[in-house]
TrEMBL record:
Keywords: ATP-binding, Cell membrane, Ion transport, Membrane, Nucleotide-binding, Potassium, Potassium transport, Transmembrane, Transmembrane helix, Transport. It is a single-pass membrane protein. InterPro entries: KdpC (IPR003820). NCBIfam families: kdpC, PRK00315.1. Part of the high-affinity ATP-driven potassium transport (or Kdp) system, which catalyzes the hydrolysis of ATP coupled with the electrogenic transport of potassium into the cytoplasm. This subunit acts as a catalytic chaperone that increases the ATP-binding affinity of the ATP-hydrolyzing subunit KdpB by the formation of a transient KdpB/KdpC/ATP ternary complex. This is Potassium-transporting ATPase KdpC subunit. The system is composed of three essential subunits: KdpA, KdpB and KdpC.
Length: 187
């Protein structure tokens, strides 16, 4: 019986420490040291929250940059990859359909970057390669009247390099890019 009471006391103490005290302390420290990140890295436009730096937003307008495709339809409660093998007929058909869709929306695009064809593992990757963003410039320029040079400069200004100079690839956050585009041209 003595061992049971000891086990119960240890369990209660560990539940309080691990389930209450530790989360409260780490949340408090995060709010003090990194308040923007702790609140979800939210992006505001005209005083309203319009998205997060960490999540792709679904974009239908031909006047804006389109992010990577999402199997979860950009629903943050339904993170999902396709789980299709690249050799499967379903995957080949899905890529062929995506190529047709991209060519319909961007008739002047000849080389389609891979990240415009594939989805990220979570379905919410907010970043594109600079090449994938620049591949959309012709469509956006035609739709908005903004010169290709201005759009390319906007992409270059929002391109982030490799982390610590060596990790990952250069990338452009599509949500931030579209927000800046909306600010500059008042679409």
């Amino acid at each position: 019986m003595k061992h049971i009471w000891t086990a119960i006391r240890v369990s209660v103490v560990l539940m309080l420490v691990c389930g209450l005290i530790y989360p409260l302390v780490t949340t408090g420290v995060a709010q003090v040291l990194f308040p923007k990140q702790a609140d979800g890295s939210l992006i505001e436009l005209n005083g309203q929250t319009v998205g997060s730096e960490l999540l792709a937003q679904g974009v239908e307008s031909p006047k804006l940059f389109h992010p990577r495709a999402s199997n979860a339809k950009y629903d943050p409660t339904a993170s999902a990859g396709s789980n299709m093998a690249i050799a499967s007929d379903d995957y080949v058909k899905a890529i062929a359909d995506k190529i047709d869709e991209i060519k319909k929306d961007n008739p002047t695009m000849t080389d389609i970057p891979a990240d415009l064809l594939t989805v990220s593992g979570s379905g919410f990757d907010p970043d594109l390669s600079p090449e994938a963003a620049k591949a959309q410039v012709s469509r956006i320029s035609k739709e908005t009247g903004i010169s290709a040079q201005q759009l390319n400069e906007l992409i270059d200004a929002h391109t982030k390099g490799r982390q610590l100079g060596v990790f990952g690839e250069p990338r452009v956050n599509v949500t931030e890019l579209n927000i800046e585009l909306l600010k500059q041209v008042k679409l």
